[in-house]
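Internal ticket - ligand job 295, S-adenosylmethionine:
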Amino acid sequence: MARPYLGNPGRCREVLKKYGFTFRKKYGQNFLISEAVLSGIIDAAGITEDDFVLEIGPGIGTLTQYLADAARRVTAVEIDRSLLPILADTLSDWPNADVINADILKTDIAAIAARENEGRPIKIAANLPYYITTPIIMGLLEGRAPIGSMTVMVQKEVAERMVTGPGSKEYGALSLAVAYYTEAEIAFIVPPSAFIPQPKVESAVVHMVCRDKPPVAVRDEALLFALIRAAFNERRKTLTNGISHYAGFHFSKEEAAQAVERCGFAPTVRGEQLSLADFGAIADALYEIRPEWKA
Ligand code: SAM
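stdout (C-alpha cells):
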C-alpha cells in the first residue's frame, strides 16, 4: 500500500480533522501542503542516505516524511505537546524518524549530533516558525554544534535580509552573521497557497552551507559582533556615533573616529555601506586601541 504522504492536501486535512487539531498562532503553525515545495526542500538540502537530519518544528510530520525518505535518520524537535500523538501516527511508517518534545532554543544540538552522528556535521532542515526565525538562526550559527548545512523556509523578507550585501536597505546584523558563518543563497520562493493556514506574506527557502573557517580573520570575534550590533542599533547614525553610544563599549567618539579613519573610511561612514571585511578591519583597529574593550 502507498505510504500516507501528508504533502497531499486531502490527506493532510483528513489527519487534522481526525485529531480535531486547532492551529496555534503563538507557535507559528503554518503547515505545508505542496508536494512540489516539499520535494524542492529535499533537493535544495542535498540530502543523501548517509545523512542525519535535525528538523525544527515537524508540525504533523509532513516534511519529516520526505526527509526520512531521503536520509539515514531524522530527529524532529517539536515544542507543541498536542502534536505528539499525531506524529506517532503519521510517522509510524517511517521508523528512521523520531520526535523530541522540546523548545529548539533550549535544545543541545551538539549532544544530538554526538549521539546520532558520532559528532560529524549534521544537516538542518525546517519550515521555521516565523515568530522566532532570527533567534533560531542566530542560535544555530553561533552555537558551535557541528552543522554542515541548513535549509530553512523563512519569510521572503527575512530571506532577503539573510543573503544581501552592503548598500541595500535589507542589509544588517543578520546578513553579516550569515555571511560570516555560511555561504547562503535563496533556493526558491514559496507562495502563501503552499500552506494551511495561509500566511499573509510570501516565503522563501534559504540554503546555507556552513564554512570551515570564516572568510575574515579577526583578533577578537566577540568584538566584531559587538561592533556590528553597535553599527545597526542606530542605523541612521554614523558608525563613529554608533560605536561611541554603544553600551557594550566605552570607546570615545575620538577613538571611534581614529579606528574608522585608520581603515581608510571617512568618520561619517555608516554601517550599511561596509562589507564584512571592512567590519573586520575596524574591529581589529578598535582592538589595537583597547584590547580590554568590554564596558
Ligand atoms: N514542518 C511542518 C510543516 O512544514 O508543515 C510545520 C512547520 S510550522 C511553520 C512550525 C512548527 O514549529 C510548528 O509545528 C510549531 O509548533 C513548531 N515550533 C514553534 N516554536 C518552536 C520551538 N521553539 N521549538 C520547536 N518547535 C517549535
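Auto-summary: The radius of gyration is 21 Å. Residues 27-32, 56-59, 62-63, 77-80, 103-105, 127, 129, 132 surround S-adenosylmethionine (CB under 6 Å).
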